[in-house]
Amino acid sequence: MKKLLSVIFAVCLAVCSVMVIAACGENGADTQAGAPITFSYSIVKDGDETYYSLKNVTVSDKAQALIAKKDFAGLADLFNTDAGEYKAPAVKYTKDTVTTLVIPEEYNKIAVKAISQDAVSGLTFVKKIVVGNNITKMSEGAFSSLTALEEIELPFVGGEKNAKNEKKLFGYIFGTTSGDGLTACEQKYNGGDSGNTKTYYLPSALKTVTVRGGNEKKDETLKFKIEEKDGEIKYVYEGEDGYDELDAVENTATENADVYSVAPYSFYNCTTLETINLSGVEEIEKYTFYGCTGIKNLTFGDDVKTIGAHAYENCTSLKSVDFNNVEKIGESAFAGCTALGEKYLDGANKIVFTDIEIGNSAFSGCTAIKDVEFNGECKIGERAFKGCTAIETVDFTNVTSVGDYAFYGCTNLASITNYDGSISDNHIFEETEYVKHLK
């Protein structure tokens, strides 16, 4: 009997040695303190559903020593031991791949659907994080103090899809704790009024963000109040903070609610980010990237049809955008983007618009644009290109309407083709080289 018990104990110990790297127990008890990397979880019961929340990720002292020396080859060898395969890779880790942390999809055949506060914190070897579509909730500060993080892939921005208030902001998952290697990011939401701002601390090294989830329609209806203030009608949704000063309810109604992976204000003022990749998003909401002064590369594929008001305003490093599939650009969407037009595949500073509606002041102050061409049926709003001082030529082929002051102050504009209106109409070309030449 003693021999049988010894065999059973040995088998159990061996199993624990292999599995501890994937997770600690349900209550977070560490079953092998010396494991190179340990994932611990807490169990969540939500109604009839049971799932795990990632509670903590830690590495051993031996791993920490290798990280301190930046010996990532040694760290890969350590993680590739039998006790170190925390996601059983088909191909062993290398010095390049060991710095990528993939959040597990399940533990003990039960889905991992949430990430707790400080779950992935202070891991200075992590340069890239991949969060799968299995994750539906992320707590504030879930990824705090990751000073080496350069890239992150997410299914949505913020705490969850369709989150409200500060929970819909990109900085939410990085938390409010400051430190070396982190950059303060003051983000606004709900217009920034009534104290609706929050300061988060993003990794200074973080440059690339990929959001895979799209914005989609929600089947249920969302109640809202129709209210009037200062002569304007406002729609105030139930449960959304920041509008307590509005009263005088006139009516109530319901509408289908959008589910946002990338909500309005999501990346507001995230100045360190350089590359944003989006997929499945048909509309860039208002103020989404306002003041993101570091953005140089913008990829949203063929899905985006509408760009909301102020969406990229004051993104002063943004050099190029492909508008081929865009149908509508909102008010001041690219206003103050002083580098826009500097980088195009053909080497020219030419921007081509086709079958598009351009809102008021959409490109005002974009001082790098030199050449603009309109094809198909295009509508140009008031002050759309006001103050674009580098513009030299404009081709108005098939433009259906041009708003007041549309090219006002484009001081270098000297060539206009296919324009069938009056040059003096509504100050459209006032203060341009073209009008001065006519005089």
Task: Describe the model.
There is one protein chain. Helix content is 9%, strand content 29%. It contains four helices and 26 strands. A hairpin with a 2-residue loop joins β4 (106-107) and β5. The strands form six sheets. It has a six-stranded parallel β-sheet, with no helix packed on it. Among the domains are: 220-255, no CATH class; 305-439, Leucine-rich repeat, LRR (right-handed beta-alpha superhelix) (Alpha-Beta Horseshoe). The protein has helices spanning 2-19, 61-68, 72-79, 433-438, and strands at residues 37-46, 49-59, 100-102, 106-107, 110-115, 128-130, 137-138, 151-154, 182-188, 197-203, 208-211, 216-229, 232-237, 249-259, 275-278, 283-284, 297-299, 306-307, 328-329, 350-354, 357-358, 371-375, 378-380, 393-395, 399-402, 415-417. It has 439 residues and is mainly beta.
